[in-house]
Queue: 3 jobs
Job 1
Amino acid sequence: MTDAPLISVRGEAVLEVEPEIARLHVHVQTQESDRRKALDRLVERNQHCLDLVKSYGEAIEKLETGGLSITPLLKYRRREGDIRAYQGTVWIKITVADFTVLGELVTRLGDLERTYVNGPSWELRRDSPVYKDAARQAAHEAVSRARSYAEALGSRLTGLVELADEGLTTDPGRGGAPEYAVMAAGPGFGGAADAGTPEAIDLEPETQTVRAAVEARFRATAPDLEAPAAASDLEAP
């Protein structure tokens, strides 16, 4: 078997699918001349924002606080005690599973005072079955291509030598996970509160492209190089 011919191929699959979740990044800010007042106002605005998001129930898959800061803003000369104000910021990360409420949520968040919204960023879940489907199709493509090469040589496949994610068979130091193309996030939103509830913005989910590639080597029977050429070969100029 060590002298058996080897057929090396590459299989690839590219799938275009609808996103499964949308991520929003929200910054809630306050600025006051007094440190305690800035902190109290930040607590109030943060709670208001969280209450708004939680009111959407199961449409929200995950709600997280990414961090908090209270920063003194110094005057131009920066002498000790020359603090003109204190700025507070809370970072909130929101994962939305129900896109029917997304447009309304974005505009209502953007309507809150001193609140800045970036997103949505359309994504697939990390455990989405789409990734497995793409890998499976890439493997099927590799087998089909190797079988076609073998048939063209008058031989047949007899066994699999190696199947790996793209790059692992030629560069052991390179990571071999399938490649995924993640689309860019949409525009951000922000603004001061106005009277009444803002009209929901229409947001169209962005198509996600998932790509998987594998490399494979197969053993094959000895080719029949003496077989008559195919008619298509004889017609070549």
Note: Confidence is low (pLDDT under 50) at residues 171-194.
Job 2
Amino acid sequence: MLPAVVKLCCGISYPHLRSTAGLQRTAVAVIGQEITHLQGWGQLQHHWRIHADLTCDEPKAEDIKPLSAKDQLFYVQKGQEAMRKALSMLEDKEGWKVEIAESNGDVICSKVMSGARKVFRLEAVLDTSVDELHDLLFVRVEEMHEWNPSIQHIKILKHVGPETIVTHETSAKTAGNLIGQRDFVSVRQSCRQKSIVYLGGAAIQLDSLPPQPGFVRAEDGPACIIIQALDGDTRKSRLTWLLNMDVKGWLPKSIVNQALPQSQLDFTRHLRRRLTVGSSHMTNCTLHMTGHN
């Protein structure tokens, strides 16, 4: 089935990546056959949630029709391509410079890529499992605005398969935000190899969803997040996040290069708060069920 084939096609292990040229050609051919066996769109509709408070335009009707095998393969390949490019950036150890080192151990480094764009790498340790982070950051991505005030909404436009989705994201309007509101249309890919989860993504164009009024259509990626258990401790996870973004517009690079790493710190802070709240809720539920006050 497709999930296993996608993992095969990723063929990745961070920090030592394997060459996958021959593997990719074989796996892509297999994916073309497997996609025809995907379950119908109707069986995926229970994942589809419509937010009643959206302020942006809704996708057109044709955007929620079942995808053809050709379109499914296209999005899967785009997701895998974004993953490979992002991991290649992380694999190259040359040129990284420390931007921010927090007292809690979070570190952000930057590197100047071709075209003079800076990418940023966050390293953080979180008190949660790999599975919970994968659930929050990929499976339940549409709920992200509930705990991250920087996001106005994220909506899944296309469920391509269990490990590939296409999303529309808008940033929230906040006081003092020099960059202003952006929106993104991205393909997102999930891939697991043993105890490590890889989340990759990149911008993609959809004719049915042009740039929204009041927003600048920014481009994300190739970018990725790597989640792995910390030294065998399943209660802690190391998160590595490569942020690679073109915010578009007419902003000076100096402002953008200050705002992007700060957005990583803010995101991580909100994520930790969400994990703390979730942990407290589970503890209270357990105490209630066992009859403790």
Note: DSSP finds five helices and twelve strands in the chain.
Job 3
Amino acid sequence: MLSYQHAYHAGNLADLQKHALLAWMLDYLTLKPKPLSYLETHAGRGLYDLSGPESEKTGEARAGITRALAEDWLPADHPLRGALDQVRDLHGPDAYPGSPLIARYFLRPEDEAHLAELHPTEHEALSRIGGFAHLHRQDGFAMAKAICPPTPRRGLLLIDPSYEVKADYDAVPRHIAQIARKWNVGVIALWYPILTDDRQKPMVDALRRDHPQALLSEVRFPPARPGHGMVGSGMFVINPPFGLEDEARRIERLYARL
């Protein structure tokens, strides 16, 4: 069983990019009075405490969401601010929503959600806040392939692996190709880390070759601590909603000042 637990990294600079774009997409997709499906392959626990020992140990949230709020990176009307404010109203000022609770903020009664999480501790925590969704304790890619194309057919899939296993980088393009063939109208969003050894680069090159019309957005930032290998993050979005590129470039400009 993999050991990764996102509580150490919740609200960091990578989360901020990913969640700002995710919230923007969900806000846009739910403007239309048509039902949609929302799927996640690696949902995590869905709710994090930024005053907890895990977050305090790394300090990554202070450099991420805490700084972003202090410096007005997210305008008051930004979709992520709405989700964050709701979660903090319910769970306290140090709460931070993972992607499942960000999705919950936007999803309507007619929408369908499927969340996969294999880690037993994370899945147990997810079950406490994930009552709005169908929960799957299984491999997320297997779940996505079994469900896609979902009903409703319109919707979004978030793929956010931990990348603990180096083989993930080789496998992701194959998984996405299979899912995209089955669900050619779905918005398929992949998050990935940018590492000092560039091990993500062959994966990104393969994705760009296979899906030339997709949106690619990358940001760079200082390592969380000396010797830390992650120095940026990326989002690769197949069938990006109209206007997403403008939001992605705005975020990139903010990170370029770091």
Note: The longest strand covers residues 187-195.
